[in-house]
């Protein structure tokens, strides 16, 4: 029997929080709160950047890309996660599973690409302020945006497409509340070495490479900042990077800790894995709007302005 005829008709079963099924409705409350925060926060920032002419600058265009990515990432997991917590809807068809996996990975790669673009933006702004506007023109920013989308698609399509050629004759129970690439691979009874290699290559050549380049940008930024004579100026220049540094940390730290838990945390209880996995995709979308609203004066002002105008309308 060919694997092609079997795979599209497969139904996988997603898992909520193992051992805590009785508390799913209660567990859903903090998750609902996180999703609501992520969706409203990122929508608000997007709305602010689109409607406020004062925010039509490269730095904020990149921030709007980050907010778009965060909305995508939230929505990718929201559907299945709340379905499990509220309705115990665990079944997911093979193709729906592949689509969800593609979008989760796609927005993760996109997030790291946008963070890299933002690092480049800060580098140009600090080391070459006079040419900043000529280097980062609107059309160049649009090109960067398109390149980010194309890069994610090209990198991840093979990884997802290669799962179609596997046959799944073992259990169909996945260990997360969403479709996660290593998880689906483990259920196959075919040799998955190619899949592992392609998946690893995709992640190393995107998220891995980006992290190195972001680090490099900051080495160069710090070099430039240290060459500024007055300490007052130094502080002021570097303060424009704080939000970005925190956003990078918020993205990379959970990502790295999740892979460590997967590799080395074999003896931890199952629900620890699940809770880490469920929150790790939610931390950046929840935190980024907060970081930028707290740390970036222009964003804070714009958001307050919008909220106040909404109040007066009511």
Please characterize this protein's 3D structure:
- The protein has helices at about 5, 25-50, 60-85, 95-125, 130-135, 140-160, 180-185, 195-225, 230-240, 240-265, 270-280, 285-295, 295-314; strands spanning about 10-15, 90-95.
- With about 325 residues, the protein is mainly α.
- It has a two-stranded antiparallel sheet.
- The radius of gyration is 21 Å and the shape is globular.
Could you spell the SSE succession in H and E letters? HEHHEHHHHHHHHHH
Describe the sheet with the most strands.
Answer: 2 strands, antiparallel
Model regions low in confidence, pLDDT < 50 over at least 5 residues: 1-5
Strand adjacency order, main sheet: 1-2
* Multimerization state: single chain
Distance between the termini: 64 Å
Count of helix runs? 13
SS-based class:
mainly alpha
- Computed CA radius of gyration, to the nearest angstrom: 21 Å
- Specify the overall morphology: globular
Average of the residue pLDDT scores: 88
Question: Which percent bin holds the helix content?
Answer: over 70%
Work out the number of β strands.
Answer: 2
